Amino acid sequence: MTEPVKVAVAGHRGKVGSVLASALENESGIEYVGGIGRGDDLAAFLHAKRPRAMVDFTRPSEAMHNALAAVAAGASPVVGTTGLSTSDVDKLETACRAKGVGGIVAPNFAIGAVVMMHLADIAAPHFDAVEIIELHHAGKLDAPSGTALSTARRLAARRKDRPFAHKKAEKETLAGTRGGEEEGVAVHSVRLPGFVADQEVIFGLAGQTLTIAHRTTSREAYVPGVLLAIRRVTAELRFYRGLDELLGLP
Q: Does residue 171 carry a catalytic annotation?
């Protein structure tokens, strides 16, 4: 009989972490060994619990420390914290390879959100302009979201020879009204109570628009993707940059 995979959660008291901790406790083939929070002794926890994977949904200022400590202890990092730099991810991948463990950093673990980005990739070459609206709960720390920024960069990369047209207002009476811009892709961030994590990608062409949207009704949306990631990175020595890689989406 195969032994269950021991999993820990950094940020287990948070809005996402608490949902994941509950799901892990009831998941077949998983042994939830506990959570670690700010101010706890991470090294002692890892030494005592010996998890094979550690899920991190904390803050950018904490996530790298947590993930590197997990790797040093032989645990595969499963990082859903957004706001990490490319150099941070490079450093974590190097650490995983040196230690011989798998790992993943993903801006979004909701499978529907990843498929939404994939569909937007398909549409990108056929439209002249695009804008992204991302809507999150009022307590989200970063803007735009990691998913929105990743989407904008992916769409821009699909149009290197013909950049998207971003029409700026001749007179902007309220600064920032036209949103931020990433290589011709406008990004707008909404922060309101009642939202969890939604995103719309709106393409425009003469006489028509196309909207590709993903709605999140609860934080349980992240559970299937995180479980899939845990099982994959503890079974193979590979580092993934995004859930799309893990799902085999181009």
A: no
- Asked whether the beta carbons of 21 and 37 are under 8 A apart, the reply is no
How many angstroms separate the CA atoms of 219 and 226, rounded? 12
Token readout for 124 is: 């990108």
Candidate list 12, 140, 188, 214, residue with the active-site label: 140
pTM for this entry: 0.88
* Count of C-beta atoms within a 10 Å radius of residue 13: 12
- The pLDDT tens digits of the residues spanning 49-62 come to 999 999 999 999 99
Catalytic residue among 6, 12, 49, 136: 136
Residue 82 DSSP SS3: coil
Per-residue model confidence as pLDDT tens digits over 212-221: 999 999 999 9
- Domains assigned to the chain: 5-109+219-247 (3.40.50.720), 111-214 (3.30.360.10)
CA distances from 2 to 30, 160, 225 (A): 11, 48, 22
167 is catalytic: no
